[in-house]
């Protein structure tokens, strides 16, 4: 399909359930203010764990979006997805009915799925026997249920899928939705990422891999991307959902347009199960291909929402990758890691970070990287430390990289009507 045959795609609605706010307005206000969402874990007793901090969603009431019986039969990751999707649909003023339902798709990524349900049911199995396991265990646990249940609650009957590419899952979901609309398979797609994996077993696994920060006595400053004193990532939870819509369809219903999505690429390091390839070749290639797909050049890029995990390996590697992909322009682009505020939502991170990139364009404001007090000498770009920055944001990239070597870059630009 030639560029002239591709349909144009715009963002018309967004929703967010995050550690710094449970709707789009609260989330953006939190990002703009540099608000910390990380604290001591309250979802369970973490006293035996090496890491006892996380970015938990606070004050979330699933019954605002779901009937009590339905909410009880869903894992937290699916509750987040339904809630953020309903917010995004309302924000877009998008009506799904019998006339358009088959043209509305859903792709929602997750890295882990219903791990808490699995942990709880395993305990029941061991203590009470197999006959006491819930008949809802499997549909509560499997990763595709965020997309499937969201369809049930919205009536969207178009293409429906779930991306499971570790920490790149949410970005893959947005990118795949973009392709569906470009090629005419859907008029609109509800897309993004969700995760509810702040659980005892998940925490233990990541800690055993020495991936997590152990700055338990100072949780607000534990996630410090690009800082030389970083010691690992901090887990987070929540969901970020976007409504992508074919431009002509959006214009026909006079929809508000936040931004246009113009590029998407994914690559693989083919190197290691958890570590990025030294020098960031795979990540750089994803950025280059996404820029090419967007039909732009590096000199027009204003902002990059970095993967920026606060791990020793990622931050230096991503910095090197940005330099390889953008050349000299890398030193003029504003870059930030919003994970410094929310923690790392794993498969949900690409969703909330795509929302952040779009909001940066819509508001001409770049959110900061908080806790960047002592920059790593290997991280020498402009990471917008401490406070947000008002500036023209015409084109924004959003990077996500996942275990297994998955690399994804999304490209958004200001919609000008041309």
Automatic annotation (TrEMBL):
Coiled-coil annotated residue ranges, if any: none
Residues annotated as catalytic? 167 (for beta-ketoacyl synthase activity)
Keyword Cytoplasm tagged: no
Occurrences of domain Ketosynthase family 3 (KS3) (ranges): 6-414
Q: Does the keyword Transit peptide apply?
A: no
Question: Pfam families, alphabetically?
Answer: ketoacyl-synt, Ketoacyl-synt_C
Which pathway does it serve? Lipid metabolism; fatty acid biosynthesis
Q: Which GO terms describe its biological process?
A: fatty acid biosynthetic process
On the tree of life, the source organism's domain of life is Bacteria
Reaction equation(s) it catalyzes: (9Z)-hexadecenoyl-[ACP] + malonyl-[ACP] + H(+) = 3-oxo-(11Z)-octadecenoyl-[ACP] + holo-[ACP] + CO2; a fatty acyl-[ACP] + malonyl-[ACP] + H(+) = a 3-oxoacyl-[ACP] + holo-[ACP] + CO2
Which Gene Ontology cellular component terms are annotated? Answer: cytosol
The function of this protein is: Involved in the type II fatty acid elongation cycle. Catalyzes the elongation of a wide range of acyl-ACP by the addition of two carbons from malonyl-ACP to an acyl acceptor. Can efficiently catalyze the conversion of palmitoleoyl-ACP (cis-hexadec-9-enoyl-ACP) to cis-vaccenoyl-ACP (cis-octadec-11-enoyl-ACP), an essential step in the thermal regulation of fatty acid composition.
What is this protein's name? 3-oxoacyl-[acyl-carrier-protein] synthase 2
Provide the taxonomic classification: Bacteria, Bacillati, Cyanobacteriota, Cyanophyceae, Synechococcales
